């Protein structure tokens, strides 16, 4: 079965009623990009760049970043690569970045919040990314966005970087797409306003679940109830996917939920057509998509808004 799935991995994922899906990969290194490509990824939906900053004494310089981003793109052979800007803080401490001790790190100086207060580090990364955009099919994605102001401030810094590159006659693509992770619940209620400034959204169910349920995603005492299948999370996903589709802005999902084959049908019923997951899981999910019928799924899960417990959701998708 495994062999058979793998042999079909590079074919597109199309449901039995002819709905096409894009199955992308989550990676954190050039090596993982290679594995993703072999497993039939239609591109990279999430490249976690924070690993480049970890286990060292100083931040990676522009040139070092450029070379690694280039390798990731080379390994994807022209397929689109979505690169997430530094998502430091929370569970990912990096001592030299100087984040003070916080009593609630997951609610603290994380992701874009850190980058907007440490613009030198952020602009170095944006510069490396802009240079890559001259020759490769990349998009950039800001993590932990919770307010429109953060998108505007990040885009202003990006404009500064582009202006500086212009002054130096260094090439970049003006068409590079910009998106955000949807992982802070507040974003759900300002989607139309945000959509005006963005090209795409990618739902991070790992953090969205943590923040919606007020449950630390790493606390093992809570792991029985910490689940992206909580009815509130499912309803939030529905609202985000509908909102994105209404605004005509692309939406994908890159949290762990995308790798759960039990959830594939449910997500398709909510209107999701782009999933991003760890490379080795791709053949299995593509297979699940080929064996399902989206209109049947819509019928089967049409009562999802009434689900009240985690067990009900689990039962419905099993
Ligand atoms: C998420 O929060 O769902 C996500 C994909 O990002 P990370 O796991 O890196 O926080
Ligand atoms: Mg996250």
From TrEMBL:
Superkingdom per UniProt: Bacteria
Compartments where located: Cytoplasm
Function of the molecule: Component of the dihydroxyacetone kinase complex, which is responsible for the phosphoenolpyruvate (PEP)-dependent phosphorylation of dihydroxyacetone. DhaM serves as the phosphoryl donor. Is phosphorylated by phosphoenolpyruvate in an EI- and HPr-dependent reaction, and a phosphorelay system on histidine residues finally leads to phosphoryl transfer to DhaL and dihydroxyacetone.
Quaternary organization: Homodimer. The dihydroxyacetone kinase complex is composed of a homodimer of DhaM, a homodimer of DhaK and the subunit DhaL.
Family assignment from sequence similarity: Belongs to the PEP-utilizing enzyme family.
Name this protein carries in UniProt: Phosphoenolpyruvate--protein phosphotransferase
Originating species: Roseivirga ehrenbergii (strain DSM 102268 / JCM 13514 / KCTC 12282 / NCIMB 14502 / KMM 6017)
């Amino acid at each position: 079965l495994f062999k058979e799935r793998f042999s079909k991995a590079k074919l597109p994922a199309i449901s039995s009623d002819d709905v096409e899906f894009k199955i992308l990969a989550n990676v954190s290194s050039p090596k993982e990009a290679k594995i993703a490509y072999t497993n039939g990824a239609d591109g990279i939906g999430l490249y976690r760049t924070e690993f480049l900053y970890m286990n060292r004494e100083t931040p990676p310089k522009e040139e070092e970043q450029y070379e690694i981003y280039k390798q990731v793109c080379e390994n994807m052979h022209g397929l689109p690569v979505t690169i997430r800007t530094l998502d430091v803080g929370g569970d990912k401490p990096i001592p030299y970045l100087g984040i003070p001790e916080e009593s609630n790190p997951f609610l603290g100086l994380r992701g874009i919040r850190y980058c907007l207060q440490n613009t030198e580090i952020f602009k170095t990364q944006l510069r490396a990314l802009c240079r890559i955009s001259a020759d490769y099919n990349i998009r950039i994605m800001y993590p932990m966005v919770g307010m429109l102001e953060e998108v505007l401030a990040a885009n202003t810094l990006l404009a500064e970087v582009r202006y500086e590159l212009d002054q130096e006659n260094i090439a970049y693509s003006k068409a590079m797409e910009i998106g955000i992770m949807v992982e802070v619940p507040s974003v759900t209620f300002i989607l139309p306003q945000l959509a005006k400034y963005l090209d795409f959204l990618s739902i991070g169910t790992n953090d969205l679940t943590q923040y919606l349920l007020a449950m630390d995603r790493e606390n093992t005492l809570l792991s029985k109830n910490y689940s992206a299948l909580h009815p509130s999370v499912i309803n939030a996903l529905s609202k985000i996917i509908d909102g994105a589709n209404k605004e005509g802005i692309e939406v994908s999902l890159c949290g762990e939920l995308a790798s759960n084959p039990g959830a594939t049908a449910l997500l398709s019923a909510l209107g999701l057509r782009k999933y991003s997951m760890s490379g080795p899981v791709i053949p299995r999910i593509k297979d699940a998509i080929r064996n399902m019928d989206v209109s049947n799924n819509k019928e089967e899960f049409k009562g999802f808004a009434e689900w009240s417990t985690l067990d009900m959701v689990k039962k419905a998708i099993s």
